[in-house]
Design goal:
- The complex is a heterodimer of chains A (677) and B (177).
- Chain A has 677 residues and is α+β, with helices and mostly antiparallel strands.
- Chain A folds into five domains: 165 residues, no CATH class; 222 residues, no CATH class; 111 residues, no CATH class; 104 residues; 39 residues, no CATH class.
- In chain A, strands 2, 3, 4, 5, 6 and 7 form a six-stranded antiparallel beta sheet that branches.
- Chain B has one domain: Glutaredoxin (3-Layer(aba) Sandwich).
- In chain B, strand 4, helix 4 and strand 5 form a beta-alpha-beta unit.
- Chain B is globular, with a radius of gyration of 19 Å.
- The chains are: A alpha+beta (677), B alpha/beta (177).
């Protein structure tokens, strides 16, 4: 009964979404303010019904309602409660429900925080979001209904995939989905601007905080996924260039480009068409990602249960999004004027370089991901594109990008002088080169590529620090408080934080790729083996029982300089649901400058085991860097200057009365709307 | 105008078309166009002895399995025991050691056991390309003539061994006599 109620709520939300995609647009065409405002109430209604539907599905999980097929397939009596709650998004159908729920949460957020948007713009944005909602809800209801019943009712479920029974999995998919659906907001703003024919600075300003926030969630989601893969899969790696991982990296790369090109569109009115394209492509890539993961078109380690029907539907959705946007673009783009001119050396030109590098990197990853498919489709046999390809193309593109991060913020808009930049940065460059040259020596061996990478890390961190310090000094006379405020203005400080976070990630990658130690050993109780300067002594092994698995567990002491620093318990888990496929649960000792960990292999009899010992330097900073990047993004998205405009409530103001360039309401004094440089 | 839209439109159409074609192929059920064709030729060093060169002829002659593995491949470990069991039952199993380092591969075999008849060392995936290896582990079933009769992508488990591989081997051996 509750299942049918959930289904009913889902269908109601779907109907509201259909109305939401039509009424506000009719309103903008006829100038009817009531119809335009209807979008906001519809967004609220849609969210409420989806939330209700989602809560009912969660309830079905908690109460073990195995008459619902999805619950039976992804849960079991013995599954711990927390995994019952997170198992709701553990499979395809539930994750789609979660997807549309987050989409409608973003829509609701836009409806609530939209005081600074003129009514036509808001109406169009909500209508486009309604259309996206219609597409995904139709997909959920018609091909992947999570409330489908099962008869006869099984006595127990087949349990959640053991790989997903892990804390990392509790938060990784939601964050990723929030990031994906957040890009739908950036897309909706771009499409709304195209429909209205107003691709102006005002549009870029409204769109920026949403895009940056979505990017922050995406960053967190990807970082957490990598963190989970690192310890749960027990392979010791943190990125595998797996098609599904690539599916999340692709929109991240274009979203990163989008954030930067939006800056140019807002500040200088340039890159308009390019920005619109990036917004469209970023969103299309999230749909493509969904398609890759859910259609079974590409063989992957962690594909969802796949089904060609779903593939056809998603592909149709992708085609409508791409071709529809392009048609709209072809119709409207000629109306878009060019932005302000800029010199060959200016912040615009550097941001253009940033965009080109990111987009080329994205294209390279996309090609590597789809190439095996293309070759197969042309009947040329199967080919392997592995990490060697991705490493070879990705790194050369990232190194100049990292260098530009240091330069960009100190170069002025419109026109700048390279000699001036050299004068400002030469000492930092020298110091960075020195740090890069010397740092690897602390690890015992020198390697040119590592030195180069670490030099870039120092370069980014030092330029950011010096830039902040200079900004502080400039306002020094006005008092320490004022000066600090100027240097730590969220949009500006957030940018430097995000750049510093990236630098930390690069540092971790450079260190771990060069200096990691990985050993396969055979250990008997009492025996020791060493890896990376640490001794590992096996004490014993026994069998333990978890909530829904049996585990063989070894006890291993980690010894450094004769002292036991930790006792690790790596496990080999045999889940009741699939005992033939044991899971490796590695046991880690984490530290600021290194992780050491043990992964249990096979029982060789007589108490002896094969084990994998890992020494992974600086891994801590990989995750810290990701957090810092996302935090920087959120800080920038929350900057007051985006909200200052909301001092004037424009929901009742028509866009015709708003100046495209400085975003002020025509007929009022410009000082009132903005206090920003 | 036309020029402006042409590039993005054609790109979008190519990607969409490719995905549509890709959808029609189930990459698990139709693992390789090579099934039913002779195993591709190769020339590689033996893993056990760099002086010895192995070719297709060393893999062909009897009904045999060809397993593609690497020491860095964790899933290969989960299926390794089945190769040990099959080898004990007298099944001939050859292997490609794929994109690996000799030392690591040797250590892997020391630890987990060495059930393989011949192991070709393929660090640059030369043979891997010819044979259409997508990722490790993959397993091919060859008949006595050297025709690829089956390909399994991903690790095998007890069910796959019992229901797919063993019956096929028995059938092929019966055909041979």
């Amino acid at each position: 009964m509750l299942g049918e109620l959930g289904n009913f709520a889902l269908i109601l939300a779907f109907c509201l979404a259909i109305i939401q995609s039509i009424l506000p647009l009719v309103g903008t065409a006829t100038g009817d303010a009531r119809l335009m405002n209807a979008g906001r109430s519809l967004a609220v209604g849609q969210f409420v019904f989806l939330l209700f539907s989602y809560v009912l599905l969660t309830w079905a999980f908690i109460t073990n309602d195995f008459s619902i097929r999805y619950v039976a397939a992804n849960s079991a009596e013995a599954l711990p409660l927390v995994y019952k709650i997170t198992g709701v998004w553990g499979g395809h159908e539930g994750s789609m429900l979660f997807w549309v729920l987050t989409l409608s949460a973003w829509t609701l957020a836009v409806a609530i925080f939209s005081r600074s948007l003129p009514r036509e713009m808001l109406a169009r944005v909500l209508a486009v979001l309604g259309m996206v909602g219609v597409g995904f809800m139709a997909f959920t209801i018609f091909t992947s209904n999570p409330f489908e019943r099962l008869f006869p009712i099984p006595t127990d479920g087949t349990d959640l995939n053991p790989l997903l029974q892990d804390p990392g999995m509790i938060i990784h998919p939601p964050l990723l989905f929030i990031g994906y659906t957040g890009l739908a907001v950036a897309f909706a703003f771009a499409i709304a601007a195209l429909i209205g024919g107003r691709l102006d600075a005002a549009w870029a300003r409204w769109s920026r905080p949403w895009t940056t926030a979505a990017w922050g969630f995406l960053t967190l989601g990807i970082g957490l996924g990598s963190w989970w893969a690192y310890y749960e899969l027990g392979w010791g790696g943190w990125w595998f260039w797996d098609p599904v991982e690539n599916a999340s990296l692709l929109p991240w790369l274009t979203a990163t480009a989008l954030i930067h090109s939006l800056a140019v569109t807002e500040k200088r009115g340039g890159f308009k068409v390019w920005t619109v394209m990036l917004a469209i492509v970023s969103f299309a890539l999230t749909v493509l990602g969904g398609f890759i993961v859910r259609s079974g078109v590409i063989t992957s380690v962690h594909a969802f249960a796949t089904d060609p029907d779903r593939g056809v539907f998603l592909l149709g959705l992708l085609a409508i999004i791409l071709l529809g946007s392009l048609a709209l673009y072809a119709w409207r783009a000629p109306k878009v004027g060019l932005g302000g001119a800029f010199g060959w050396y200016s912040r615009e030109s550097l941001l253009l370089a940033n965009n080109v590098l990111l987009v080329v990197a994205c294209a390279a990853v996309l090609i590597g991901t789809l190439y095996p498919l293309a070759v197969d489709a042309l009947n040329l046999g199967k080919i392997s594109v592995g990490p060697p390809y991705f490493d070879a193309v990705f790194m050369p593109l990232m190194l100049p990008l990292l260098f530009l991060i240091g330069v960009g913020p100190v170069v002025s808009w419109k026109q700048s002088d390279p000699m001036e930049t050299v004068r400002q940065l030469r000492w930092i460059l020298l110091v960075s080169a020195l740090i890069g040259g010397l740092w690897p020596l602390t690890m015992g061996a020198w390697n040119p590529l590592t030195a180069f990478g670490l030099g870039l890390v120092a370069w980014i961190l030092l330029t950011a620090a010096v830039d902040l310090y200079r900004r502080f000094q400039r306002r020094r006379q006005q008092g320490v408080g004022k000066a600090l405020q100027a240097a730590l203005r969220p949009s500006f400080f957030g940018m430097h934080l995000a750049h510093a976070g990236l630098a930390l990630v690069v540092m971790a990658i450079a260190m771990v790729n060069t200096y990691e130690v990985e050993r396969d050993v055979r250990l008997e109780p009492g025996e020791t083996a060493t890896a990376g300067g640490y001794e590992f002594r096996m004490i014993d092994s026994d069998t333990v029982r978890g909530p829904n698995f049996d585990a063989r567990q070894a006890t291993v002491e980690v010894i450094r300089d004769g002292e036991v620093i930790d006792v690790l318990h790596p496990q080999l888990r045999f889940y009741d649901s699939q005992p033939q496929m044991p899971m490796h649960q590695a046991s880690l000792n984490r530290g600021m400058t290194r992780d050491v960990y043990v992964s249990l292999g096979d029982d060789l009899g007589g108490g002896a085991w094969t084990m994998r010992l890992y020494y992974k330097p600086y891994m801590f900073w990989m995750w810290t860097g990701c957090l810092l990047m996302a935090f920087g993004g959120f800080l920038a998205a929350g900057d007051r200057r985006y909200r200052m405009a909301s001092a004037t409530d424009r929901r009742q103001v028509s866009e015709r009365d708003i100046d495209s360039h400085d975003n002020s309401i025509i007929g009022e004094s410009p000082a009132r709307s903005e206090g920003q440089t | 105008m036309i020029k402006r839209i042409f590039l993005p439109l054609s790109l979008a159409l190519v990607v969409l078309g490719l995905l549509y074609v890709g959808l029609g192929m189930d990459s698990r059920d139709l693992p390789s166009p090579l099934v039913g064709k002779p195993a591709p030729d190769f020339e590689l060093e033996s893993l056990r002895d760099p002086e010895v060169t192995l070719t297709r002829d060393d893999f062909v002659g009897e009904v045999a399995l060809v397993n593609v593995w690497a020491s860095w491949c964790d899933t290969c470990r989960t299926e390794h025991r089945y190769w040990r069991q099959l080898a004990e039952r007298g099944v001939r199993i050859h292997a490609f050691n794929y994109r690996d380092q000799r030392q690591n591969a040797e250590r892997y075999l020391e630890i987990f056991g060495d059930p393989f008849a011949q192991i070709a060392y393929d660090p640059r995936a030369d043979a891997g390309m010819e044979w259409g290896v997508y990722a490790t582990p993959e397993t091919y079933v060859l008949d006595a003539e050297g025709i690829i009769r089956h390909k399994h992508i991903g690790p095998v488990n007890a069910d796959v061994v019992r229901e797919d591989i063993l019956p096929l081997i028995e059938q092929l051996e019966a055909e041979q006599t």
